[in-house]
Amino acid sequence: MTASDTSKPIKVAVAGISGRMGKAFVQAFFNDPVIRIVGAWGRENAEYVGLDIGQVAEVAGGARAGILVSSGFIECVAACSPDVILDVTQAEAAWRTATSAIGKGIRPVIGTSGLSQTHLKELAILAEKNNVGTMVVPNFSVGAVLMMEFARQAGRFIPNVEVVEMHHTQKIDAPSGTAMHTANKLAESRSHYNAKRVEEKELMTGARGAVHASGVRVHSLRLPGMISHQEVLFGSEGELLSIRHDSFNTKCFIEGERMAIQHVMTQKKLVVGLDQILFART
Fold it and tell me: Choosing from 23, 119, 167, 229, which is the catalytic residue?
C-alpha cells in the first residue's frame, strides 16, 4: 500500500500482543473499517503463539479474527505483509524491529519508552534514507500531549520546575518516555531551570531526582494500582502551578494510536511525538 492510496484499509501488525497496550489496541480496532489488524506477535516462545488474536486479546464475546499470533517479526511479516507495525513492547526490542521494518518498507509506530537519543538519530537516518515514515510516540493520550504543551508554554514564564511521573510496578524504564519528552519540551522554552540557591546535600542518593541537561528535575514513582500519571510543578514567589494528567485505563490511548497510524502513512521521515500531528492542525 502506498502512502497516497487512501482507498484501502491500513494493514497493521501488533508487536506486543500479550501486553496491556497490545490487547487494548486489538479490542479497539477489531472491526475497524480504516485500520485493519492483520497480524501480531509477543514474547518469544510464549504459550499463545498459534492462538487467535481475538482469544489472546480477550475480545468481548470470545470473538475470533482468524488471525494467529506469530512467533516473531519475520514470521509475521511473511504471513501478512503489513503496512504499519504498532510496537508496544520494550525499547531494545522495538529498536530492532523498527530497523528491520524500515528496511522492508514497513512503517513502524513505536509506542514504547526508553529509546535513547542515539536510537532516535539512527532511526531518523534510516527513515530518510529509505523514504519510510516512522513515528516514535512517548504517549498516545491527547490529554497527556496537551499537558506537555501547556508545560512548555509555562516554562517561558516560570524558571523553577520539577516533574513527577507515576506508573505501575511493571514499568521497567525510568524516567518514563513522557517525562523525558516533557523535559525536552521544557528545554525549548529556556536553556536552564532551577538556578542553585544553596549547596544541596542528598542524605540518600537520588533523593532530589534525576537532572535533565536543562536543570529540570524528574522524579519517578512506581506503585501498585497506578497506570500512567504525571504532574509538572512550577514554583515562583507566593504561588504554585500544577499541570497534571492521569490515565485511568487504556481507552485514552486509542484515538492517538489512530492518528499516529494514519499520519505515518503520509510521511517519509521520522516524526517524534503526537504533538507534531495535533499542533500542525492548528
Answer: 167
Asked if residue 57 lies in contact with residue 41, where contact means CB atoms within 8 angstroms, the answer is no
Give catalytic status of residue 8 as yes or no.
no
Cell 464475546 belongs to residue: 61
Looking at residue 106, what DSSP letter applies? P
The reported pTM is 0.86
Of the residues 23, 104, 168, 171, which is catalytic?
Answer: 171
Does residue 98 contact residue 123 with C-beta atoms inside 8 Å?
yes
Could you say which of 3.30.70.560, 1.20.120.790, 3.30.360.10, 3.40.640.10 is the CATH number of the domain covering 142-248?
3.30.360.10
pLDDT in tens, 42-68: 876 577 899 999 888 888 777 888 999
Active site residue 11: no
pLDDT category, 195, cuts 50, 70, 90? Answer: very high
Cβ atoms within 10 Å, residue 229: 20
What amino acid is encoded at 183 in this protein? A
- Taking only the tens place, the pLDDT of each residue in 82-127 is 999 999 998 899 999 999 999 999 999 999 888 888 999 999 999 9
Which H or E run includes 181?
helix 177-189
- Measured CA to CA, the distance from residue 209 to residue 191 in angstroms comes to 19
Please, what CATH class does the domain formed by 10-136+251-278 belong to? alpha beta
Domain boundary assignment for the chain: 10-136+251-278, 142-248
pLDDT at 4 over 70: no
